[in-house]
Design brief:
3 helices; 6-stranded antiparallel sheet; two-stranded antiparallel sheet; mainly beta; about 45% strand
């Protein structure tokens, strides 16, 4: 409702006809403009053998960067004595830094007759976990992670069977700290 600002009386006047049921106003607006630049690369090499089947080696990766170039405003809200911020800093950070800036993967796929298997390792870049004002100082960075996946396959006549494991090494992202700069990371203190 803009409590604590010079705009609060104007916003409260808008919801007054709906009181006591309505205590605030919430609306959605499009208009965030972003620029994303990046590159994706995939390289694959197939190696048939005479006695051990066929091996396919694949390396892939991407690097990207997103920048928020414009945030939305409206003439009506901009005319208020203290215009509310429609898109605060933590939301800009979510757009720009809450997805990995890079991802790289190496995989080996083998097929030999009726059998096959895949082993893949993927490195994900770290991400920023922004917190809302006034707790922006509680923003923290989740470290990069390396994940290993594996699969074994067999084909019998017209039936195929595959058994695999995603995240074979049981790797998880960095656990959220309870507090950053003496501020709870989550409003209820949970992790």
């Amino acid at each position: 409702t803009g409590a604590g600002t010079a705009s609060a009386p104007l916003i409260l006047a808008l919801v007054a006809p709906y009181s006591p049921t309505a205590t605030g106003v919430r609306f959605f607006i499009n208009g965030v403009e972003t620029t994303t630049k990046g590159v994706d690369v995939v390289a694959s090499y197939r190696m048939p053998t005479d006695t051990m089947g066929e091996f396919t080696f694949t390396a892939s990766g991407n690097v990207n960067n997103t920048d928020v170039t414009k945030t939305p405003t409206t003439p009506q809200l901009s005319a208020l004595p203290v215009p509310p911020i429609l898109f605060p800093d933590n939301r800009v950070l979510e757009f720009e830094r809450s997805t990995p800036a890079y991802k790289a993967s190496l995989s080996l796929d083998w097929t030999g007759g009726a059998f096959g298997g895949t082993l893949r390792g993927t490195q994900y870049g770290g991400v920023l976990i922004p917190q809302a004002a006034p707790n922006l100082a509680a923003t923290w960075r989740q470290d990069a992670a390396f994940i290993v996946d594996a699969e074994a396959r067999a084909k019998f006549d017209k039936i195929g069977l595959a058994v695999g494991a995603n995240n074979l090494l049981d790797t998880y992202p960095t656990k959220a700290p309870d507090r950053v700069n003496n501020i709870n990371v989550y409003s209820n203190g949970a992790t």
